[in-house]
Fold this sequence. Notes:
By secondary structure, this protein is of the alpha/beta class. The chain has helices spanning 16-25, 32-42, 50-54, 62-72, 79-84, 103-109, 114-122, 133-142, 147-173, 180-194, 254-271, 284-292, 302-312, 328-333, 348-358; strands at 199-203, 213-223, 226-235, 241-252, 276-281, 316-321, 341-343, 363-367. Helix 4 (62-72) crosses helix 9 (147-173) and helix 11 crosses helix 13 (302-312).
Amino acid sequence: xxxxxxxxxxxxxxxxxxxxxxxxxxxxxxxxxxxxxxxxxxxxxxxxxxxxxxxxxxxxxxxxxxxxxxxxxxxxxxxxxxxxxxxxxxxxxxxxxxxxxxxxxxxxxxxxxxxxxxxxxxxxxxxxxxxxxxxxxxxxxxxxxxxxxxxxxxxxxxxxxxxxxxxxxxxxxxxxxxxxxxxxxxxxxxxxxxxxxxxxxxxxxxxxxxxxxxxxxxxxxxxxxxxxxxxxxxxxxxxxxxxxxxxxxxxxxxxxxxxxxxxxxxxxxxxxxxxxxxxxxxxxxxxxxxxxxxxxxxxxxxxxxxxxxxxxxxxxxxxxxxxxxxxxxxxxxxxxxxxxxxxxxxxxxxxxxxxxxxxxxxxxxxxxx
Length: 369
Ligand SMILES: [Zn+2]
């Protein structure tokens, strides 16, 4: 039997025991893992699981994903697992020699391994260690991160699990000595081998021309949902900051902060007679909303947004998108530590950021393939 396997599309099933029996009866004992994947791909009777597509990626070697896959199925042959199957073997963890070797211990709880996880996870601002290894992996699949971070998050976790297992086998079967300080270095090297090279994009901010005024807006959600704050900066063709604002908008989601920023910016421009206005945001939602004059906004913003749509009729308006790396002055105004209100000319930090932008200082954006 020949099967074409698309690992990315292969979904997983919780009926591993059943699959194994079928494959053994069919004579596919040697390559049962490969064939099981093929089987799983073509079998649509069982429910999909989220991590089924999360652990398989083209840029991650299959052997790394495989140990994760076995771990999620509780099919890693740790000593406690072997003992349940009737094998007699030493049951101590080879890293700390102070606890029984279980899946949860060796991959997560072990005092030799835990500091490595802590160091790795703090890179991603993840500090909750109340999980066991299974629930951590499920939480890792569900974690909402930017697309730039997501790839490194996934590669890092899968690589770390693979490296822990490889080291464990080296300690037991090749009498190697485990040094925790070397583990992270090994992970970094393995990480480098797996990670796709990022594409570097130079992001530039451009000033308005002639008598036009440009407003850059931004919003910062402090949670999802969480406290929402919005900011914006008005700049003329010489790079003079005509004014900037910061407002708190209660509780909401990320896209609502961006909406709030526009709802604040347009009346300010209108009241000051800046009718030739270039609006720039790092939110594609806002750019589309302004281009289409759509009324598809959350209900609590509908009244405010309708007023904005009326005001926009008085403007000669240009709308553009900029990556957030190039939206620095507005990003500063949307930071949590700003004081609410409208400030003409005042903020030195903003002026400094605008001067750098006016000098066509480029910002670097790393885009993962
Ligand atoms: Zn241990």
